[in-house]
Amino acid sequence: VPRAIAYHRPDSVEDAVALLNDSSHQPLAGGTVLNGDDDPTPVTMVDLQGCGLDGISGDAGRLRLGAMTTLHDMVNDDRVPTGLAGAAQAELPSTLRTLATVGGTVATGNADSILLAALLVHDARVELVGPGGYEMLSLADLLKAGVAAGHVVTAVEFDPSGDCVRQSTARTPSDTPIVSATARNAADGVRLALTGMADYPVLTDPRDPTTGLEPISDFRGSADYRRKLAEVLTKRAVNAIGGVA
Ligand SMILES: Cc1cc2nc3c(=O)[nH]c(=O)nc-3n(C[C@H](O)[C@H](O)[C@H](O)COP(=O)(O)OP(=O)(O)OC[C@H]3O[C@@H](n4cnc5c(N)ncnc54)[C@H](O)[C@@H]3O)c2cc1C
């Protein structure tokens, strides 16, 4: 049964925010989650396609991904660092990459998202707009808090310098990693992000990656197994970028 009981296609972000003032209205981006969801709650979809939120811009200092930029666009843009483009490519199969967007990925905050982990180590910040106007939050803070109702993610910007490296373990080579560690050598030190270790991807201390994290146990691995994986994968990822200074 389709969830959508009504559909709007506003042509500006301001109009989208006005429509989202009603709690039964939800932003629609690529639809890979929203249209496939088996939650029966009826939704009025507010399609963001006409709001001019796609495209990649910026320079060597800071790159900006419009929220409606697809993972396919990220993979095929030479300005996106190789490690980050690789994470976008590995996140989803090609049939979904042409639909799934950066904004939808951020708003979903999937615990296993290697793309979010790569954005975290590139010091990503998220631009949002809501009834109170525009604001910028670090991606780490946004993943913790979630996107507030009535708000639209408009862009994600990040530092493209210093490529990132990912180490991961999955049940099969093409499966979503049980745990992954992504490391980047930034100008002021190493950044490390883990997936599969919390409710959302997290930035953590490369010297002590698992303290304070309470991973779940499920059919893919126990909490102890995940902790062990995180320690081993962190060492490999950090060594691959030259170690912690
Ligand atoms: C078969 C399948 C496999 C998947 N595998 C993975 C995986 O391995 N790893 C992974 O991390 N994810 C996975 N996903 C989840 C999903 O593909 C991603 O999270 C995706 O990037 C969502 O983007 P979208 O544009 O399709 O979002 P949509 O489905 O359009 O929206 C998802 C949610 O985000 C909200 N939203 C979308 N855009 C915005 C915005 N700009 N501002 C505010 N809220 C917004 C929507 O209201 C909705 O609640 C998978 C999904 C499917 C269907």
UniProtKB/TrEMBL annotation:
Name the Gene Ontology molecular function terms of this record: FAD binding; oxidoreductase activity
Q: Report the InterPro entries cross-referenced here.
A: CO_DH_flav_C, CO_DH_flav_C_dom_sf, Diverse_Substr_Oxidored, FAD-bd_PCMH, FAD-bd_PCMH-like_sf, FAD-bd_PCMH_sub1, FAD-bd_PCMH_sub2, Mopterin_DH_FAD-bd
Q: Which SMART domains match?
A: CO_deh_flav_C
Any matching Pfam family = FAD_binding_5
Q: Which residues form the FAD-binding PCMH-type domain?
A: 1-163
Q: Any stretches that span the bilayer, and where are they?
A: none
What is this protein's name? Answer: FAD-binding PCMH-type domain-containing protein
